[in-house]
Amino acid sequence: MDQKKATIALALAAAVLTFLAATFSMGMAMLSVLVDGALPGGGCGGDGGLGGGSQSIGGTDWNAEQTDNAATIVNIVAQRGLPRRAAVIAISTVIVESRLVNVGYGDRDSLGLYQQRPSQGWGTPEQVLNPDYATRIFLDRLIALPGWATMPPGTAAQAVQRSAFPDRYAPQEAPAAALVDRFWVGPDSPVPAAPGAAPDVQLASTAFACPDQGGAGVPLAPSNIDPTKLPPGFVPPTDPAQRAAVTYALAQLGKPYIWGAKGPNGFDCSGLMLAAWAAAGVPIPAGTVNQKNAGTPASPATIAPGDLVFIPGSLGSPTNPRHVGMYVGNGLVVNAYDSSTGVILQPLSDWADKITHVRHIAGPAGVPAPAGPVTAALAEVGP
Question: Which family does it belong to (predicted)?
Fold first, then answer.
């Protein structure tokens, strides 16, 4: 009789433990759902961007710059027809190397999202500071590894990076997989495009969490400026960094506007700014909403070549501008205007009453401009 009672008690205890375990597991799953989602100020209607702005994914909080870079990586993997695993490996690497922030410093000459070293053949500083280039060369080296697709992601990441700390990558596989889950579209192992075929940009762009957040929204007023050509007698800035950024931006005139693109064949408005300043060896964040805090505040009345100029755009507001251009000097601003127009030059005076922010990135700051109709209008605008 005692043995029978003991058996019943053990069975009841096992049932209770099973119920509690299931309840705990369900509770944790529900908690994960509750903690995931847009953070205050985030989401497409907030700080927006390619990645959907600031949000919690897999229980980890990411800001708008981090989600923008994660979406860019997934987009490039999708463009190349590589499997989901490649995106997990790339993002776990970037979480370790830079916490998904495009940094301009690192161990020795390491730079950018992946902390790639120009001295080790990864590319020029200007190239590795562009997340698009940095991701593509990382993937080139990844898929050149025999058996990479069946390696544990941490092992594959270490084989590419050759880090002095090889055990850092594997612990980031889970948060990387959660980020990939947020942005991945299509099958886990898509059929690669035929050699020489154009990438399926439309499919890849569905990796972006927010739709295209609009163009300049400033009418193209009649002007004696050809929007796709430098005016005769244009003089670039003398400061090396400003000259490099301005020269790069102007070299893109006439190229198409592509939402999320950072070059070399197309750009959106913030992608052009990032690529231009990367060409000068100066990293800036991805996304308009992040770039409006880059560098230091400047005044429209003291604007310098290379400064970023922000306006609400077609879908933004004075407090949350969605469009950015670069002042190149000579009273002109270059910008990826919209999807039907591409990269063009406009007189800064066309933007005068719309400017919400000006940010000075590098080089000498501007000096007060002589009084005139343009500076009079700009004087009413804050930094």
Answer: Belongs to the peptidase C40 family.
| pLDDT above 60 for 305 | yes
What the block records as the tokens of 241 is: 């960094």
Task: Give the SS3 label for residue 276.
Answer: helix
Locate 119 and state its tokens.
């001295």
User: According to the model, what pLDDT value does residue 39 have?
Assistant: 97
Contacting residues for 81 by C-beta, under 8 A, at least 6 apart: 190, 191, 192, 193, 200
pLDDT (tens digit per residue) in 221-279 = 888 889 999 888 899 999 999 999 999 999 999 999 999 999 999 999 999 999 999 99
Report CA 92 to chain centroid distance, whole Å.
16
Q: What percent of the chain has pLDDT over 90?
A: 75
Cross-strand pairs, 327 = 333
7 φ/ψ angles, rounded to the nearest 5 degrees: -65, -40
CATH fold group of domain 240-378: endopeptidase fold (from Nostoc punctiforme) (3.90.1720)
Size (the chain), residues: 383
pLDDT tens digits, 208-219: 999 998 899 998
CA dihedral over 187, 192, 194, 198, signed as positive or negative = positive
> How many C-beta atoms surround the C-beta of residue 19 within 10 A?
10
